[in-house]
Amino acid sequence: QTIRGRSAPLSPLVQARVALARSEIDRHYYSQLSCEMLAGIAGMSRFHFIRTFKAAFSVAPYHYLMQVRIHHAKLLLSTTQQPLDAVAAAVGFDTQSSMCKAFRSIEGVTLAAFFRGVRLGSAPLPDFVSAQGHAASG
Q1: 3 state SS for the chain
Q2: Are 7 and 53 in contact (CB under 8 A)?
Q3: How do residues 70-122 score in pLDDT, each as one tens digit?
């Protein structure tokens, strides 16, 4: 729905439907979530859902899911001693590597830089990072 190249405002009903899908991401970010499943929650086709979600929240649903997962990963990494693979699994990533790639994409820095920032911010570097070695390459 465009009017002279601009998106038409979303109706309150459509906004509420995509908000339901966003709420599902917020509550179940650690689960396997597909656009098809989220579109079903919103009562839309996959294509229409992606376009409408982006119009409503200025971010695509997949990117929003990655932002939520990385937010929770940062909390866990800053407050627990869990190994990276456990943190990755806890927030919904299949592998530690996929979490590291998403972290770099979302935050614009590597995990190693994040941990240096944690250290510079007077919080100690988590023991598991120095113990695992490969976390510093993140």
Answers
A1: CEECCEECCCCHHHHHHHHHHHHHHHHHCCCCCCHHHHHHHHCCCHHHHHHHHHHHHCCCHHHHHHHHHHHHHHHHHHHCCCCHHHHHHHCCCCCHHHHHHHHHHHHCCCHHHHHHHHHHCCCCCCHHHHHHCHHHHC
A2: no
A3: 999 999 998 988 999 999 999 999 999 999 999 999 999 998 888 777 655 54
Which residues does residue 3 pair with via DSSP β-bridges, in sequence order? 6
What's phi and psi for 67, nearest 5 deg?
Answer: -60, -45
Q: How many CB atoms lie within 10 A of CB 33?
A: 18
Question: Tokens in use for 46?
Answer: 């996959």
HSE (CB half, 13 Å, CA atoms) of 130? 6
84-to-7, 69, 89, 103, 135 alpha-carbon distances in Å: 41, 13, 9, 12, 7
- Please give the single-letter amino acid code of residue 66: M
CA distance 88 to 91: 6
Whats the size of the chain, residue-wise? 138
**pTM for this predicted structure:** 0.78
